[in-house]
Amino acid sequence: MEKRELLYEGKAKRLFATDDENLVISEFKDDLTAFNGLKKSSETGKGALNNKISTELFKLLENSGIKTHFVKMLDDNHMLHTKVKVILIEVIVRNIATGSLSKNLGIPDGTILPFTLVEFDYKNDALGDPKLNDQHALILGLVDYQDELDKLRRMARQVNDILKPYFAEKGLNLVDFKLEFGKDKDGNIILIDEISPDNCRFWDIKSGEKMDKDRFRQGLGGLKVAYEQVLNRILGK
Ligand code: C5P
In the chain, fewer beta carbons within 10 Å around the N or the C end? Predict the structure, then answer.
């Protein structure tokens, strides 16, 4: 499957058309951004690591009954996937308090939450991705029905129920993550984007070491080594 015209360039990926109107190709970039694009850098090989990690996780989720946009990995930096209409809601799932949850609500960093928290953020860089409640999402027309918001939450919890024990077996705490969803040509809601250390937080269960983009956000260094470790643990190496 050949890349055709560039459809969209995001912070971490470029999206290309293909000869099939229902399929597109994502190119995973090496660029790193944080704090809504204020902090920028690049790490050679980061895109390929995220493509490989996402490929493995999409396969795992598909095999567990979650519908995703994944079709196949084409090469190190390219993934073929279904074209969707993106739902402009970032679905954040949290098992342990850290990041913006600790900052906004004063819940001490590292607190194990009494139940899994699912939040919605408005995917809107100009507004700084503000928090949304269900009524905001409906008033903005981000989805048509309350049922669709319920479905996003249900699917996000299912993803957590699959990934949390999967990573625990590999010695990683799945602290929190962000999911995105879209509607395919038949109007079905499916999981899209990527699932990688760029949008998940992983803490090593034994050492507590951060194995995700917080290494870049917090200037800790060693980002690529951490991403490689995540991939190697997924591959059982
Ligand atoms: O920053 P915050 O604590 O809200 O992030 C929660 C989770 O969502 C983290 O895993 C982070 O990587 C992810 N996230 C993301 N893209 C955003 C905001 C958060 O991937 N725009």
Answer: C
Q: Say how many C-beta atoms besides its own lie within 10 A of residue 60's C-beta.
A: 16
CB neighbours of residue 33 within 10 Å:
19
Residue in the structure block whose two tokens are 């360039």: 9
Listed residue (187, 155, 183, 172) closest to 226, CA to CA: 172
Closest residue by Cα to atom 20, ligand 1, is 199
Band (172; pLDDT cuts 50, 70, 90): very high
pLDDT of residue 1: 82
pLDDT of residue 173 exceeding 90, the answer is: yes
Do 90 and 164 share a domain, yes or no? yes
Range of the domain at 56: 3-82
Same domain, 170 and 71: no
Residue 210 CB–ligand 1 contact under 6 Å: no
